[in-house]
Amino acid sequence: MNVKNGYYYTKEHEWAYISGNRAKVGITDYAQHKLGDITYVDVVQTGKVVKQFEVLTGVESVKAASDVYSPLSGKVIAFNSKLTDSPELINKSPYDEGYIAEIEISDNSEIKNLMDAENYKKYLKGLEK
Amino acid sequence: MAKFTPHTENEVKEMLEVIGVKKVDDLFNDISKELRPKSFSLPSGKTEYEVKEIFETLANKNKNLILFAGAGYYDHFVPAAIDAITSRAEFYTAYTPYQPEASQGTLQAIFEYQTAISRLTGLPYSNASLYDGGTALYEAIAMAVRTNARQRILIDAGVNPIFVNIVKTYIINLSLNIEIIDLKDFHCDKETMKSKLDESISCIVVQNPNFFGFIDDYEELFKIAKEKNICCISVFNPVSLSILKTPGEMCADIAVAEGQSLGMDLCFGGPYLGILATTKDYLRKMPGRIVGKTIDKNGKECFVLTLQAREQHIKREKATSNICSNQALCALRAVVYLSLLGKNGFKNLGLLNLQKTEELKSKLKEIKAIEVIKGDTFNEFPIKIKQPINNIVNKMLEKNILAGVPASLFYKNMQDILIISVTEKRTDNELYRFVEELKKIV
Q1: A126 within a domain of the structure (yes/no)
Q2: Residue A42 covered by a domain
Q3: Is residue A123 part of a domain?
Q4: Which of B350, B366, B348, B325 is nearest to B422 (CA)?
């Protein structure tokens, strides 16, 4: 499984890439492997206010419908509208082209509740046992 | 009797022994005694003959009335072919099949139904149907709330109050706020409605023709509402769409209806048919089943249940609705009805309803004590009589005529209004009798 350095991770397999007071968020390579072919991503309205670890949106795959939780609290400032027509971008490029939304972080101290790449790798190893 | 008794006493005893339980009651031990019913108050069994007699006695209490009452449920002619086709054993089920891929005929019928509803409403997507008009309206409102996460709902007072009551029952434990917008001269007060449109409103609900029968155009209102991301819900009368502007043409987001008019007999409470159609923007939030057409691995055309990720067997408690079934038999009646009439026949049906209604209107206009309320209508219209309406209805009942629906049943301030409906079934002679009998009373 691909885990990217410099990204932060949740136990529910979302990632956040932080630059300044903004964060791009998406689901991890592990998550997209488990879900299989993604067929639909629910549009996230810009302006939506989310709390850390609460539902940001939902994705559907050929296997399941799952919630995506927000790694950080904040206000949604952009939705990756490419996903509307090409949800498979999440499978192809979960950490870049397949990002889901961009949020304006409201509380930087919450970053401590997330795992860095090293810890997420360990966490994944633990899941495979 | 064995056929109707699922288990003999010996079988029950054997089953209890196998699982190690002494008596059937013990199976319910997890539910504390005070929460269990003390008695089901069931009467003792009766013979088939006795049962038949009871129901015949009940049936004989029905009077054969000439119906001028509508209020959302109309006395249209139901061709015998509908019963003949829908009672075929292959079709005769109230449910969406649970093994859909093995029930291609039923799926095709539902697919055809969805296509018919889509063409009727001018909206691209229909589900496989819901329970009735009121349920469909609630589900439309729930779709709006699910989409924009707002809590306020504006409903025009001209929307069928029976449907609105069903909605109020559904939302009783939800934090939604319904505001009914008063009528203006029996029409939707569009200016007041417009003045209330802001970003806190989830959806607006209007009906065409409205509860009194008046026709309106909501296109402008819908366009203004949409600028504020408000969901526009239109309640319609299916038969009226044969000649009137469709919800799609008015830019509605969701259209709902009571589908009884499409080939279902009037029954006391149903079973009826909930019609719901929508646009792509709301498709994923739509409840109920959806049948799609595709190609199997051998390249042959086939039908499947599609977009099932909305449903509870996949999405569990986050499903768009607990309705995972549909009114399959009633939906089948609707699609058979529409197919039998065809495009031209359906249009003629609409024109006939309009023409007969106008005929009765013009005859009533000649009676001094009666004021036919002005305005464009389809197959229903209100009249004003300065006498207790209930007395008039009761006196007409003595002549075996159900003269209409007193508006006061639903609107306390309308003591002098009677809502009259005329369908293609009303003969010239019946219209004549209605007018003559009414003349004697008013």
Answers
A1: no
A2: yes
A3: no
A4: B350
Residues 103-162 of B with CB under 8 A from A: 148-149
A40 and B309: CB-CB below 8 Å?
yes
Q: What is the pLDDT along chain B (442 residues), one digit of tens a residue?
A: 445 667 888 999 999 999 999 999 899 999 998 998 888 888 888 999 999 999 999 999 988 999 999 999 999 999 999 999 999 988 887 677 777 778 899 999 999 999 999 999 999 999 999 999 999 999 999 999 998 889 999 999 999 999 999 999 999 999 999 999 999 999 999 999 999 999 999 999 999 999 999 999 999 999 999 999 999 999 999 999 999 999 999 999 999 999 999 999 998 878 999 999 999 999 989 998 899 999 999 999 999 988 887 777 777 777 777 676 678 899 999 999 999 999 999 999 999 999 999 999 999 999 999 999 999 999 999 999 999 999 999 999 999 999 999 999 999 999 999 999 999 999 999 999 999 999 999 8
Candidates B315, B316, B320, B321, partner chain A, best to mutate (most A CBs within 10 A): B315
Element (H, E) at B6: none
Q: Is ipTM strictly over 0.90?
A: no
- Decide: B73 and B258 in contact? Cβ < 8 Å: yes
CATH number at A63 reads 2.40.50.100
Shortest CA gap B314–chain A (Å)? 6
Domains of chain B with CATH codes: 2-59 (no CATH), 66-75+343-441 (3.90.1150.10), 80-337 (3.40.640.10)
Whether chain A has a CB inside 8 Å of the CB on B284: the answer is: yes
Chain B hits for A67, CB-CB cut-off 8 Å, are 318
Whether residues A58 and B318 touch (CB distance < 8 A) is answered with: yes
Residue A42: its chain B contacts at CB < 8 A? 284
Chain B segment 317-356 residues within 8 A of A by beta carbon are: 318
- pTM for the model: 0.87
Map residue B408 onto helix, strand or coil.
Answer: helix
Which residues form the domain of A47?
Answer: 8-106
φ/ψ of residue B428, rounded to 5: -55, -40
Domain annotation covers residue A45: yes
Among residues B203, B207, B141, B210, which one has the least CA distance to residue B170?
B141
Dihedral sign, Cα of residue B240, residue B120, residue B107, residue B308 = negative
Q: Which residue of B has its CA nearest to A45?
A: B148
Determine contact: B267 vs chain A, CB below 8 A. no
| Strand A22-27, strand A38-41: pairing | unpaired
From chain A, the residues in CB contact with B148 under 8 A are: 45
Mutate to test the interface with A, among B314, B316, B320, B321 (most CBs of A within 10 A): B314
Provide the number of structural domains found in chain A.
1
Instruction: Give the closest of A42, A45, A67 to B284, CB-based.
Output: A42
Partner-chain residue, chosen from B148, B149, B315, that has the shortest CB–CB distance to A65: B315
HSE-CB at A57 with a 13 A cutoff on CA atoms is: 26
Where would I find the beta strands (DSSP E) of B296-437?
Answer: 301-305, 370-372, 380-385, 401-402, 405-406, 417-421
The answer to whether B315 faces chain A, any CB pair under 8 Å, is yes
